[in-house]
Amino acid sequence: MNKQSHKQIRPNYFTFTITFALVLAATLSFCKAGYVAINHDERMKARLTAENYAARLSQEVKEAISLSEHLEFVVKIKHGQQLQIKQIGPELIRQLPFASSVQFVPNSVVTQICPLKGNEKGLVDLWHDKDRGPVVRYGAKHDVVTIQGPFELFQGGTGMAVRNPVFLKQGGKRKLWGFTIVIVNTDQLFKKSRTSMSKNGYDYRLTKQLTPLTKKYSVIAKSKGKLSKPVKITFTSDDKQDKWQLEVAPKAGWTAGKKVFWILSFVIVIEALFFMLIWNFFKIKALQLEATIDPLTKVYNRTGFEAALKSWIKKHPDQPFTLLMIDVDDFKFFNDYYGHQVGDEVLTRIGNMLARSQNSGLLACRYGGDEFCAAILGKSAQAAEATIKQIHDSGHGFKSRGKKISYSLSIGYADYPLLAMSMTDLLAKADEALYAVKMDHKDGVKCYGQGQHHDIRSQIGFTVHDLIMSTPTPLIVFEAKKGGNTLFVNQSCMRLLGYQNIWQFFNVIRSNPFAFILEADLPWVVEWLRLYIEDGRKNETRELRLRLITAEGQRAKVKAQARMTDSLKYGQVMYVSFEDWQQA
C-alpha cells in the first residue's frame, strides 16, 4: 500500500469513527429523551385514569350526600314533627347497602337511629360533644354538609358520618331544626371504583381530610400493593367543604426505564432507532399542539374551541351565549396580491385581537382558512352587540414593506338558546348570517333572522346586486366545470322560468345549472359546454338555441348568449342570457 493510498484510507476511517460516535451520542441523547417521553406518557395516562376515578369517587360521595338530603326532605315535609326513622330507615338501608345507619337529630341531639342495635352509643348530644361538636357547629353556621371520618364501625369496616343541617321556618324566621345523618360504610360506598382500579392494573390509596377544620388526612381505602411514585389527584364533594386525595400507580411499576434499557441493547439498529425516536418526539409535540391551539394565530383550533365551549355549557346550562362567525373580506386578494406572508399577518393580527378579549368572557378559535369563530359567554345576541361592534370596528390595518395594508371583517352571529338549541344548528345559523353580510357588500355585522337560505351563498361577491337583479334581460351565472354550481340568477330569469322568488328557485334546482333544461336537449348542451371550455377562448360570446322547462312544467324555446370569463373568487364562470323566447 503506497502513501497516497494510506492517506485516502485514514480520513475514511476517521470519518466513520466520528460518525459512529456522533450517532451513538445522538442515540444516547435521544434514548434519554425517549425515557422522558415514555415516562411522561405513562404518568399522563395514570393521571387521566386518576382523574376519571376521582370523578367516579366524587359521584359516589354525592350518593351518600343525596341520602342525607332525602332525609332532610322527609323532615321538612313533616315540619320536623312525628318523625319515625324506623318506618323509612330499613328500606333505605336495603336499597343503599353503603348506608350503615340513618339518624334524625332534632336540636342537635341524636334521638332516632336505624338500626338502633349496636349503635346505642350514638345517642348523644352532638352540639356539645368534644370530638364532633366543632364540626357540627361549623356545618350549622355555614349551612353545609360535613363529612367526618374515617372511623371504625361497630359492624366492622371503616365508616364516615355525613351530617346535613336542616333549617325550618318558624315565626317567619329560618331556624336550625337539627341534622339528618347517614353513617356510611366506605367499603361498600367505594367498592365498584376500588374493584375497577384493581382490575385495570392500578394500585391506589384514597385519603380524606378528617374534618373541614383540620388539614390532617387519613386513609379511607388502599390496595395491598406498594405505591411507587404515585400520581396524586385532589378533589372535593359538591359543597367543596371536604377534600379528598387519590393516589394511583401501575401495579407492574413504571416501565420507562426497562423500555429504554432494551432499546439500548439493540445497538445494531441505533441509526433507525434515532430517527424513530426523533419522529415520535416531534409527533407527540405536534399532536399536543394541534390538539387545542392553532399554530399560526395562537387561539383555539376547532377541536379545542368545541371542547372549551362544551365545558362552559355544562357548567352554565341555563345561561345564553352568542356565537360569531367571522370572515376576512376578500382574503384571497391579500394572498394573491401581497403574498401569503401578508395574508398570514392578517390572520395573526385577528387572532391576537380575539385572544386579548378571551379574558372578558369570550372564547375564540380559527375555524378554518380565513374564518374565525367566537363565543361571547353569558350574553344574548342583543346584550353582545357592543362587543361584536368593538370586534368589527377595531383597527384593521398595518404596514408591510412600506405599504399600508387595510382589511375588513364580516361577522354573522346567532345566540343560544333563543335561535338554536344545538351547536350544529347554531353554527349553521351564524354561518347563514355571515353569508348574508357577504351578499350585502361585506364589511358588516348581522344577526341571524328568519327567511335566510343557505343555497344563495354563492351570490357573494356580486356587489352590483341591485343593478343586475333589475335588468330586463334574463341572466344566470354558473361555474364553468363539471358539477359546477349556479352562482347567480336575476329576477328576469326567474320570471322566465316561472319562479316567484329566489328561495323557490334554489329549493327546486338545488344549485344545478342544468336542472331547468329539457331532458332531450341536455346531452348536446353539456357537450357544447365541454367543447367551449376545452376551446379555452374566454370573453367571446357564443349563441345556442335550446328548450327550457318552467316551474309549471311548460316548455320554453330560447336563444341563449353565453360568455366564459375568469372570476377572482370562482375561477372560470359562464354568463348566459336568454332572449326571443316563446311558450312551446
Automatic annotation (TrEMBL):
<keyword id="KW-1133">Transmembrane helix</keyword>
<keyword id="KW-0812">Transmembrane</keyword>
<dbReference type="InterPro" id="IPR006189">
    <property type="entry name" value="CHASE_dom"/>
</dbReference>
<protein>
    <submittedName>
        <fullName>Diguanylate cyclase</fullName>
    </submittedName>
</protein>
<dbReference type="Pfam" id="PF00990">
    <property type="entry name" value="GGDEF"/>
</dbReference>
<feature type="domain" description="CHASE">
    <location>
        <begin position="124"/>
        <end position="198"/>
    </location>
</feature>
<feature type="transmembrane region" description="Helical">
    <location>
        <begin position="260"/>
        <end position="282"/>
    </location>
</feature>
<keyword id="KW-0472">Membrane</keyword>
<dbReference type="GO" id="GO:0043709">
    <property type="term" value="P:cell adhesion involved in single-species biofilm formation"/>
</dbReference>
<dbReference type="InterPro" id="IPR035965">
    <property type="entry name" value="PAS-like_dom_sf"/>
</dbReference>
<dbReference type="InterPro" id="IPR000014">
    <property type="entry name" value="PAS"/>
</dbReference>
<dbReference type="InterPro" id="IPR050469">
    <property type="entry name" value="Diguanylate_Cyclase"/>
</dbReference>
<dbReference type="InterPro" id="IPR029787">
    <property type="entry name" value="Nucleotide_cyclase"/>
</dbReference>
<dbReference type="GO" id="GO:0052621">
    <property type="term" value="F:diguanylate cyclase activity"/>
</dbReference>
<dbReference type="GO" id="GO:1902201">
    <property type="term" value="P:negative regulation of bacterial-type flagellum-dependent cell motility"/>
</dbReference>
<dbReference type="InterPro" id="IPR000160">
    <property type="entry name" value="GGDEF_dom"/>
</dbReference>
<dbReference type="InterPro" id="IPR043128">
    <property type="entry name" value="Rev_trsase/Diguanyl_cyclase"/>
</dbReference>
<feature type="domain" description="GGDEF">
    <location>
        <begin position="319"/>
        <end position="450"/>
    </location>
</feature>
<feature type="transmembrane region" description="Helical">
    <location>
        <begin position="12"/>
        <end position="38"/>
    </location>
</feature>
<dbReference type="GO" id="GO:0005886">
    <property type="term" value="C:plasma membrane"/>
</dbReference>
